[in-house]
Amino acid sequence: MAVISSNALTGITTRMADNAMSAGSILQVVQTVKSDISSQAQTQNTWVDIAGLSANITPASGSKVLVQYNVYGGTDSGPDNLYMRMVRGSTAINVGPGTGNRQAVSTGHWANHNYDLSLHSSSFLDGSPGGDGSTAITYKVQWTDYYGNTTYCNRLYNQNDSDWSWETTSSITLWEVAA
Q: Fewer CB atoms inside 10 A, N or C side of the chain?
């Protein structure tokens, strides 16, 4: 079986023989960059996908997948709590234990005002993604807001057309790692 490496930005695909790759080698990299701005009306503590922040990868049997996300998020009022989590298919991965009333999250922040835009960043080596070399696996980032406020990706809530305001990009990157 050949390993397929693709560059999602240019569509270039390179094939390498499996036996040419040693354990720990990077077999393919897939990245989705969200460059648009978006908002999502939230229901208190209900997880929803962040539009445009998912990526598909088709790992070989036994491979691991290094999942990384960098997401800029904020809310429409403060104080507030914004949480994010990493998901494979429909299963949350790389989250805390969520003991008692605490949230099981990958990242979170407490915003004190509506000018807050925080970077949520997480990395996790998924040791058992369940790849078979022919089935794509979807990884995504979900978010929720403790108070059910509107959340914003890649922009401030209190956004206006001035040089003190900004917009940014967010991304999810998947690295297939040889077993």
A: N
CA distance 57 to 136: 5
- The values of phi and psi at residue 68, to 5°, are -135, 135
Phi/psi zone of residue 94: left (φ > 0), alpha (ψ -120 to 50 degrees), beta?
left
Length of the chain: 179
Q: What is the mean pLDDT of the chain?
A: 85
**Taking the model in full, what pTM does it have?**
0.84
In contact, 86 and 92? CB cutoff 8 Å:
yes
Kindly report whether the peptide bond that precedes residue 79 is cis, defined as omega within 30 degrees of 0. Answer: yes
Give start and end residues of each alpha helix (H) in the chain.
none
Both tokens of residue 121?
């960043």
159: left (phi over 0), alpha (psi -120 to 50) or beta: beta
